[in-house]
Amino acid sequence: MIRTVYYNIIFLLLVNFSLEYEYPEDNTLDYGNLNVKQQIMNLQAAQRSINKKNEDVSDAKYSKPNIKNIPPQLKEDYKHVDNWPTSSKKLGAVSAVALDVYKNVVVFHRGDRIWNAETFDAQNVFKQRTLGPIKENTIITFDRDQGNIINEWGSNLFYMPHGLHINGNYYYITDVALHQVFRFDIKNSTRRPDLVLGDPFKPSMTSKTFCKPTSVVQLENGDFFVADGYCNARIIKFNFKGEKILEWGRNSFSGEISNGPEPPNNFAIPHALTLVPSKELLCVADRENGRIQCFYWSDGKFYSQYHSKIVGDRVFSVDYANDSLFVVNGPEDVRNRDVAGYIFDMNSGEVSGKFGTFLDPHDIAVTPDGREIYVGDLSPDNTGSRIHKYLLNGIKPTITREGDLINTIPTTKLPMRRGETALIVGSIVLLFAVFTVGIAILISKRKRRGNEENEYHSLMTK
Fold first, then answer.
1. 285 vs 312: CA distance, rounded Å
2. Annotated binding residue at 287?
3. Which residues form a coiled coil (predicted)?
4. Exposed site from 13, 258, 317, 367, fewest CB < 10 Å?
């Protein structure tokens, strides 16, 4: 009888758990047949050359570099790592590079897709929708030691990849053709996002819609920022559920053309984002204004900007480590300026170092200790590579954590989801049930033994 009750309890617990747990769905995203006649500001026609003297902004911290203090030759302490990655896999234009929780290198590339003058119309609507999503895997994970491929995914999901940010299990992705922001919880699925913001193929500007969003970065409490982007030129802060908290920014391309300095909060394509945890700052690569603008992440209040004639008038990406901002610039009409990586000292505001030379760099990722740099390029170099690795003084770092380069199932500090909670609760209930049944069996045995001893004692006394 007790054994039957025990089995029934286990069966009911398992049934309840199967109903509560949210199994991931692995269906390809269906964007449907949507209306693309959304009228927005026409900005791409004459994105003028930015000849603005950002170094003359009087109210911006570190806005005026002292040319006399710039060393005649910048330190180049980072050495290129040849034959990395080892994989011969052919990548399309690399739009983003990031490090996962195990410091594996994750690349977001465009496959056979090319962004040119025929890609978007005058209203920023994607013109090549009939091509369908990119058929090959667009997200490739390499181990950072040897550069071997660990895994890859992202086929038949994206039309024009742009930004990638990783926080724990969560991969934030932007697609400029879809005008959308995606969040994938890869612990559950790499096919179905757990959050989608924006209307597919419809450029717009509301609290949850975008026009060519470029980049995302997430705080540890789950709030995240979106750089929106090529058209709307604003920064939006959301909570983890995707609800808007605040936004700021004004488009440098709108209004009258001026040769004067751009004030803070104006953006000429906010192109990449990074966090400075020690100062609670969000820093933005203000691409065509050739500067990094930093804001307090709590309220979006301006903190400082970083600009240098050495770096030039285009800054494509930025990352942070050790009180320094690592940036890559881009090609300009000025031929005597290197397309390379540069390092801003956040304390002095000056350019303190330089690394590499590139063709068309688009994104950068730096390890938290500042010892390794990874740069993604839209164009291949003479070896055919579009992803580049640099080591501080060329010294290979020591891997101290077992599985550091091979574990691809990261953890997260964010709140547990419903299915995970159900699993824990079910386990606790099951253990309690087993404990209760065990006590009942023990009591039953003791009672039986007591009855047998009483019967034996009664017989002996007769």
1. 13
2. yes
3. none
4. 258
